Sequence to fold (620 residues):
Amino acid sequence: MSAVAIGVDAGGTFVKLAAVSISGRFIKEAQVPSLPRLGPAAFVARVAREVRSWNLRPSALGLALAGDVDSDKGTLRFTPNLKGWGGFPYRAAFTRALGVRAVVENDANAAVWGAYRRLQLRSSRVVGVTLGTGVGGGLIVEGKLYRGATGSAGEVGHTVVEPGGRLCHCGARGCLEAYCGSYGILNTARELIKRPSPGLKRLCPDIAELSPAILSAAAHAGDKGARAVWERTGTWLGRGLVNLILTLNPEVVLLLGGVSRAGELLSKPVRRVLDAQPFKTPFKKLAVRLTADPTAGCLGAALLALEARG
Amino acid sequence: MSAVAIGVDAGGTFVKLAAVSISGRFIKEAQVPSLPRLGPAAFVARVAREVRSWNLRPSALGLALAGDVDSDKGTLRFTPNLKGWGGFPYRAAFTRALGVRAVVENDANAAVWGAYRRLQLRSSRVVGVTLGTGVGGGLIVEGKLYRGATGSAGEVGHTVVEPGGRLCHCGARGCLEAYCGSYGILNTARELIKRPSPGLKRLCPDIAELSPAILSAAAHAGDKGARAVWERTGTWLGRGLVNLILTLNPEVVLLLGGVSRAGELLSKPVRRVLDAQPFKTPFKKLAVRLTADPTAGCLGAALLALEARG
Fold:
């Protein structure tokens, strides 16, 4: 039996693919467009075509999808970001197309598991938060990925940090995602930066094109408005993390995803919030680590597929 | 070897004691005053005297204490409610006094474990919240009590439900405890009931003597002010539970402690908040159970002592 699995990480724009060995080595990598409008069957066909062209003999495939995944059925119950992709039998379709055992996992779970394995963390209790367009999470409990009763554990993006606050993509108000997802950060920028500085305008002539990456560059260049945006974002993130840490008492908090590239702009206000807690013990030895590893989701999906019982 | 353990649940006023068999049967029960001002050494001596008078041969003792317990060292790192009891070597003192193996556990952890075992819940993922003067919590993950990195897991009373809100006993603002602990509920009553109704006055002639139990009785008798207090309390509790449920995705939420005697006054607004969540999956099959079992802490402490590796 070949010990290679295919990891598939389907985002809103691109699908990342990799053939991964049991040790986590990438044997082959590719990217294909997601084209979500063409629907899930076309997506499966496109991925299968690419994988077949690799001429490998994978034993399993792991698919990471954004949304409420039903791992038992290998389908997606609900997703705000991939319209029309709910209900499709992904597991069965991939097994049919490629003749492999397939597992379907929430994308944040896959990314946190991939990062946990790649960093070879020795801590057995880790809270991972993925900061992208949305905010997701994955929990490592006693060295294993913890999925909860319905596979919905770690939905930290929809824990509330501002009751009655901003409307989130999920339909609730005040969710962490509405402040720390990339769209939340841009909303904060719109609130705080009424008149862009000349420096910010140079970096971003059309303010409609503003992004977390540009806000990072501007803040590093000393732009006050951009700095204030990160300060506020980190404070909200810290608030969300306080609740998670008091609940789960992890050794490590992992911040993943594109937004984590902001680095200290984000981690400093986070640390300030954590260090200000009067109940010190769970915060004292806690490490906050950032890793924007873009292939963690692929790696995690492949490893979870290899590790799953056939 | 005798399969009997002593469970000791030390509250601010009374210490509950029981001799418990491995099956969870209570062989002997007693209550002694806590007299916290006399300090922890006098407390250990008082409990040991009572236990010796039982003429049993316990193999272990489990002590449940309110606060931040260091189970490895068998001591208490920090406690807001038992002044002067921090730092004392409880485990060593009980072992010396009674010649038994001893374990020290957070009181909410012990109560949740005791209730979980007594109710013989088949769910392996349970979030327990103890509603007393303070608000604590205990997490059952894959059928085991989950303690976290420093034994501080499940500190749900200090997760924040109202950022910048009421000052909590812990020193932070907006904690769940500041709204749903008994002192929080009385503060809500003071805010909402400016002029007590004749009915409430009959139940409680001196308004300084108001308690959650009286507020329950008044609400059951139809008092509007008391009903509004429970409505608000349940809404805050629901908010705290939403964050816990999105994080841990349990099958059951257990509400324990004296305040849970309010029953539907509390569980109805809680259920309303949970049912209003747009992200439905983790809430759909979730059971919310109330059990004001006053000996759950004793039972849990004893069972944890019996189950601990000698």
